[in-house]
Amino acid sequence: MLLFLSMVILSAGSLLGWLRGEDDHAAWQERGLEILGVAGVLGIGLVQSLIVQTGTAGVLAVVGVAATILARRLPAVRPPWAASPATAPVLLAPFALAGTSTVGLALVALHAGATLVHAIEILRREA
């Protein structure tokens, strides 16, 4: 819950920073959002792996984060539904609250994979 509250505060601060013209300050808050998103997904994956004593959740978390980072590094136009480090915890939250974090992590990994596939396809068509 603390993760989501801090992400909301950073997001609001970033928006207010952009509106006031404090672009550097807002950009740092955006980076903070990304760091919290990545740390949150990896942390939930690690805790779930330790609870159920399998590596499935941890692997899904790492795959989801890696695919998201790779997709964001590609110079393709991202659609509105594209995965980002800040949206992954939002997608994962209902499943984590319901006690089925592994299912949520699988959904995060699938969403990130679909975004990566879309970005690669856009680049392939442009080449």
Detailed description of the structure:
- With 127 residues, the protein is mainly α.
- The chain is 83% helix and 0% strand.
- It is built from 5 helices and no strands.
- The chain has helices spanning 2-20, 23-52, 56-73, 87-98, 101-126.
- The longest helix has 30 residues, at 23-52.
- The chain is flat, with a radius of gyration of 16 Å.
- The mean pLDDT is 90.
Instruction: Classify the beta-strand content into a percent band.
Output: under 5%
Please, what is the average pLDDT? 90
Low-confidence stretches: none
- Judged by helices, strands and strand pairing, the structural class is mainly alpha
Order of SSEs: HHHHH
Number of helices: 5
Rg, rounded, reads: 16 Å
Number of strands: 0
**What characterizes the major β-sheet?**
none
Q: What would you call the shape?
A: flat
User: Helical percent range?
Assistant: over 70%
User: Gap between N and C termini, in Å?
Assistant: 44 Å
Concise structural overview:
It is built from 5 helices and no strands.
Question: Secondary-structure blueprint of this entry?
Answer:
Blueprint lengths: L1 H19 L2 H30 L3 H18 L13 H12 L2 H26 L1
Q: What are the main properties of this structure?
A:
mainly alpha, 5 helices
